[in-house]
Structures are given as C-alpha cells and as structure tokens.
Amino acid sequence: MEPGLYHLLIISAALFFIGVFGFFTRRNLITMLMSIELVLNSVNLNFIAFNKYLWPNKMDGLFFSIFVIAIAAAEAAVAIAIIINLYRSHQSIDVENAEEMKF
User: Fold this and answer.
1) In terms of Cα–Cα distance, which of 17, 71, 12 is closest to 46?
2) pTM higher than 0.85, yes or no?
3) How far is CA 32 from CA 2, 16, 18, 20, in A?
4) 9-63 pLDDT, tens digit each
C-alpha cells in the first residue's frame, strides 16, 4: 500500500509545525538549528510529493530538493561556526547571551 499525496502533505505539515514550534519556544541554539532543519525537510517532502503525483515523468522536484539540501548543509556549517564562537566567548549557547554579538 502506497501513501497518497494527502498523507504526505499531512506528514509534511506536521514536520513544518513541529519545526516552527521548536524554533520559537527553545532558547538553545542547537535545538533551534534542528528545528530549522525540520522545516527544510518538510519543504523537501513537499517538493518530492508534488513531483511524484503531479509530474511523475519530470525531475524538477528532485532537483529542487537537492538544492535545498545543499542550502541546508551550508546553513548548518555557518550556524555551527556561530555556535562555537558564542560558546567560546560566553561559555553558553543560550540565545539570551547572543545579544552581545550584535555590535
């Protein structure tokens, strides 16, 4: 039994809202980074689901998904560098301590 488009969209919406909820409620930078990754994975799931059910002979959704994965990898590398810099200067990765890095 293969899941339909409706099922994949429900899973994608659940991933998206879990990611948004995690991003807005957490103060730890690593959990916020993981929440952003959940949101990007829900976007990838949407791209692949719509590609499979609307245009099964084309590869556009897969190419967009690969592009989003590349963007997510670059975003994770930059975010981890910022987290390491914040930890070295403040001995904490709490978002409240990151206000001093603005200037």
Assistant:
1) 12
2) no
3) 33, 13, 11, 9
4) 999 999 999 999 999 998 888 898 899 999 999 999 999 999 988 888 888 888 8
Residues 6+ apart with CB under 8 A from 95: 27, 28, 29, 32
Let me know: does 22 contact 34? Beta carbons within 8 Å: yes
Distance CA(64)–CA(48), nearest Å, equals: 9
Q: Could you identify the residue written with the tokens 């070295």?
A: 88
Cα–Cα distance between 69 and 58 in angstroms, integer? Answer: 19
Cα distance between residue 47 and residue 4, in whole Å: 14
